[in-house]
Amino acid sequence: MSYVTCLRCRGCGREYPVEPLNACDFCFGPLEVEYDYDSITRAVSRERIAEGPPTMWRYQDFLPVDADMALDMGTGFTPLIRAENLGRKLGLENLYIKNDSVNPTFSFKDRVVSVASAKALEFEFDTLACASTGNLMGSVAAHGAKASMNTLVLYPANLEKGKILGAAIYGATLVAVDGTYDQVNRLCSELADNHRWAFVNVNMRPFYAEGSKTLGYEVAEQLGWLAPDHCVVPGASGALFTKIHKGLKDLVQTGLIDSADTKMHIAQAEGCSPIAQAFNDGSKEVRPVIPDTLAKSLAIGNPADGPYALRTIAESDGSAVIAMEDEIVEGIQLLAQTEGIFTETAGGVVISGLRRLVNQGVIKPDEVTVAYITGNGLKTQEVVESVVNPVHISPSYDAFEEAMAGR
Ligand SMILES: Cc1ncc(COP(=O)(O)O)c(C=O)c1O
Ligand SMILES: [Zn+2]
Q1: How many A from CA of 9 to the centre of ligand 2?
Q2: Domain CATH for 362
């Protein structure tokens, strides 16, 4: 059983039943899942979690799904890697990479879709849908296939080939929209109002967002039941960022760890940084922008969770950091060439953002720091094509020696 009690509006606090709803009828605020924490506290223990599956579903007590409905494709419990080489380059002694690019569809989105698709089955939807910046649609398509549901994905037409192929292969109906993600998202809201389809990040959004908390739980468990000093997280809507922090706080609330004084840092790309701009301006409001960035997975100009991300920064004494556009590929290459991890543009933003935070003295050399790598580089190959520069030879020994002589 799950420990959900209701949905609650984050704006005015009104209570709603556990149904496919995402906004308050009165103030239009977003709805959030609420739990009976006393019962969770009685149920959970480090031992119970350790006995669970080696996936995100070891944290089922904190998720809004009945465990036997869980659609477990093996998502989560991804490696937390001690990044000594990258740490040495950046001047950090305790740097870790949470490598979430090794999930079933190669991004952290499998966590949120794992929850949302299970919930969609529970609500007896037959169609799983989404508005996507690229990674989400691959995950929706794969989970829809596994659950024998129809899948419908809408996305800005200019996405990378690897992202589109990564959804098409599972048999999804693809709808390429000539517009920005924010326009796609608005269209999906209208569709969700008029069709009985489970849009994972629209009408299923309160449940969907909960999946990202597992990225907080797992990191603490993998550090030996300790919260890190810093988390550096890529931001688009801001949901992932706020939920990692929620995850860490949940562990304190239920007595699994003593404290979580983690400073949360959100990383955005220069060409789409509405949350970071608001932070820099000292504003509580996020002003929408028209995205123009290499980091298409993070290209949300009007972030749904923007104000809550600012609140998470303030509560945790964290910050926001902007990676310049020409630093994105640098970040991808730096991670690949120090740790052997090939990430997509969002990861490039995180690594370059991390470097800035260290150079600014925000992160100190001995502090335990976790950089979240949330997507796989094979999906955004076009941004790094210039690294392919082979020595081209005919198939003979002499040709090899001659070509290599100058190296
Ligand atoms: C690889 C990757 N990382 C991070 C994010 C940011 O997630 P959120 O919209 O929850 O801020 C996305 C969003 O699509 C993404 O694809
Ligand atoms: Zn409300």
Answers
A1: 5
A2: 3.40.50.1100
Ligand 1-lining residues (CB < 6 angstroms)? 107, 133, 135-136, 234-241, 297-298, 344, 346, 374-375
Residue 349 lies in a domain: yes
**How many Å apart are CA 24 and CA 15, to the nearest integer?**
9
E strand or H helix at 5: strand 4-9
Sign of CA dihedral 114, 116, 121, 126: negative
Ligand nearest 345 Cα, by number?
Answer: 1
Q: Residue 305's pLDDT is what?
A: 96
Q: Is residue 157 part of a domain?
A: no
Domain count, the chain: 1
Range of the domain at 94: 80-106+209-386
Residue 227 lies in a domain: yes
* Residue 9 one-letter amino acid: C
DSSP-derived secondary structure for 183-209 = HHHHHHHHHHHHS--EETTTTTHHHHH
- Per-residue pLDDT at 406: 79
Per the CB < 8 A criterion, the answer to whether 318 and 310 are in contact is no
Residue 156 lies in a domain: no
Residue 364's identity, in one-letter code, is: K
The structure's pTM equals: 0.98
Low-confidence ranges of the chain (pLDDT < 50): none
- Per residue in 76-130, pLDDT tens? 999 999 999 999 999 999 999 999 999 999 999 999 999 999 999 999 999 999 9
Q: Which mutation among 97, 297, 341 tests ligand 1's pocket best, with the greatest number of atoms within 8 A of CB? A: 297
Asked if 14 and 26 touch (Cβ cutoff 8 Å), the reply is yes
